[in-house]
What we know:
Blueprint: H1 9-18, H2 36-49, H3 54-66, H4 69-73, H5 81-98, H6 120-145, H7 149-170, H8 178-195, H9 200-205, H10 215-222, H11 235-247, H12 257-268, H13 273-288, H14 292-296, H15 300-309, H16 317-334, H17 349-363, H18 367-384, H19 392-403, H20 412-427, H21 436-452, H22 458-478, H23 482-493, H24 497-510
Helix pairs in contact: 2-5, 3-6, 5-7, 6-7, 6-8, 7-8, 7-10, 10-11, 11-12, 11-13, 12-13, 13-16, 15-16, 16-18, 17-18, 17-19, 18-20, 20-22, 21-22, 21-24, 22-24, 23-24
Amino acid sequence: MKMKVTFSRMELASLLHDLHLSTSSEEEPLPFLPPITELLSRLQEELNGSPESCSLIGRVEQLFLAADPNWLFSPASQDGGWAELKAAYASLISALIGCAALPLCDDDCSPLSVAAYKSIPARATAVCTALTALLRTLGDWEKGVGTRKGATSLLIAVAPPICVFAVTHFQDQVWTSTASRAAAQHLQEALLSAGGWRDSAHLLMGDTEESRGILGEILHILQPQLTKDAWQRCEAMKLVFAWTLLQVTRPSLSPHLPHLLPPSLLFSDHHRPENCMLGVRCLHHIVLNTPAAELRQFNRAEVLYQALFKHLYTTEAAVIQLVLACLLDLLLILEKPPSCSSSRRKPCRHDDVLRLILTHMEAENKVVLRRVYAAALPAYIARMGVAVCRHLRRLERVVLGYLEVRDPPEETTRLKMLEALQKTARAAWPRMQCRVNALLRCLLRLLVDVSSDTDLCDSLKQQLMDQSAACIRLLDACSHGSVQHLLQEVDSSCCSPEVLGCLATVTAMTDR
Length: 512
């Protein structure tokens, strides 16, 4: 429930008297109201010059809530009046936002401490409340006067800096508190309501010529702070940029690509994993939402590929996981999939990526990295198709090594390797017969291990056994039935009940 705030003429007279805009005393009635641009300019000067401006911010909020909207939002003259009014409001909003500006880092090596942001949440809350009052009054007034070019352009003029400020403070970061995040969220909602935008994506992209978005204006605000030397000095700018980019989809992203690509590359090239991951997410979003022809233009796609490929040498599992997913989509832009190529299948970038993945997998002993590589491998094998034959020797060693090692509690690595083996058998079946013996021994050992593992739940045991049996059926098909004869020989020489039970199950499945 909203509280009704009254702003009497006496209070307005007091404010004007304090700002030296009235010659009458605070107790005398106002003979006339000065032009709103004059008041806005004086408020801006006071906010910029006062280190302790919270009380003045509160009076600005009261002014926006209860003063006559026709006085607040009407230009003094029609000739250049709207431009002057927009400039005055833009300057005042800049001064308000400056009252809660984040401190800058001294260098690019380490972020500021939490203590450096101690006073920011309270100031941000006050500024958000004042800007929310402005937007609600402006939105109500625009609805009352109808669609007017000047009135609409006034909202468009103030929306970009307000949006940047709201996004800065509604995220869960060290410079925000529960109260400031709630106030910033209300500010963003008030902005959407004032302009009739459905959501933040609609605000940024628009949908028609009349209802255009404010993405270009926001990027214009962010651009000076996203250069190579400046972006690391303010922690919030990279988050605001990433939030903005991830809201924008095709076809609205392409026209702004020259302003979106360089900061994303800068982030991805940083030594701190969190910045690198943020950059890779931005690059992946660009890849998914930009036409392939535009990415190939000016060799952009090749630049992205080189920037991402070098990250495969890192040991950060979270970074590699994002890079492998992004590369899988980017490779489709750079070249045709080897599985679909009708021409002679020469080694290509797909081969380079898969070769490096397998090389790292073969020597990797960290559980987290093994899981990341195993999760990505089936998709790359499917993309390679029959061209995976070029990597079968190394792939066989990887599969055998990974299936032998337990991965509790969910056995994700083994399940993914079984999936990779199935895709390999389907794609490269003419080359699988000479590898049947080694793979079959490994799968049988896996069945025995699973059946005797008391730590595994029944559903996971069944899943592993089903996937192993599916691999054995495919190997049997690739070897023209020779697996059944091998199973019979093993069956006649085994005496372990677990082994006999597993073999009976598998033999029954291969007979289908």
